[in-house]
Amino acid sequence: MSKIRKKTHPNSCKKIVCFAGGSVVPKIILKPFKDLGFDMVGITSMVDNGGSTGALRKDLGVLPTGDIRRHLLALSDLTKGEEWKEKLWNFRFGKTEISPGHFGHNFANFFMSGLECVLGDFEKSLKITSQFLNVKGRALPVTLDNIQLVAELEDGSLVRGEDEIDVGKNHNRDSSIKKIYLNPGGRVYPKAKKEIKSADFIIIGPGDLYSSLLPCFLAEGATEAVSKSKAKKIFICPAMTKNGETSGFSVNKFCQEVEKYINCPLDFVIYNNVYPGNDRVAEYKKQGEFLDELLVAEDGLNKGKFIGADVLTSSGLIVHDSKKLIKVIKKICKL
User: What CATH number was assigned to the domain covering residues 11-41+195-335?
Assistant: First the structure.
């Protein structure tokens, strides 16, 4: 009797590794490509130290779960009767302000941190969580070491901690960031390194440059893995610049900064070139205290590398439209 071959999705052999934290990339990149059948890997920086995550890091000495929990949920494949798992994963206990602007503890943070404390092993916690959510693909930390992010400003002052760099008010936002580094530092997670080196495509962003994206490459060995990978490397520019981080940045400036930290050229840089009206920009800037200006591209960019396209939503908040962005990525990568 002949064996029955298991059917595979035509895209399942293509591996896409995404670098980012926060809530943007999981929704607009990881989940859509996972649903299209690609082999998806999400890698997070592990520098989150704000809100519920920061409180648990401080109280229990655990690794941060604030970013990786979002990657896990984006890669989950829940059945129709398991919608409760997603609701529970996003559930917050109470309304107490844990730190400025952060309210209530998140269930997912409790779940993963509790597992790490009981089992004494973040990897085991990650494995059990992946099973609980029926994850298709991998959500991985860039390091298993207890790292912290530091930014050195042009005025010589230091800003310590991802949360303070991102939304903190206790540093001089008129002085630009000179560089970021880890103190204490750490080494790249071997499983993340393996995925990076075997990727077909690497996608960086969109997201905050210095508090979300570039920290992914600071662990020892991470930059080397990316630079040696034969994967096509794609950077997605943010829609807006950010006060105190990327004020005055152009598309090419973003590209140069990313290339400096990954120590190799990018193959493609995607940016928005259909600009919303001034009224819409002004209204959106009210939504975030540190939003600066709309990102614009300078003249003379190499059109083979710099890809301008309509990638924003057509109304409301000035954010990336997942369907538009996926279409552009599929086209330039011939997927």
Answer: 3.40.50.10680
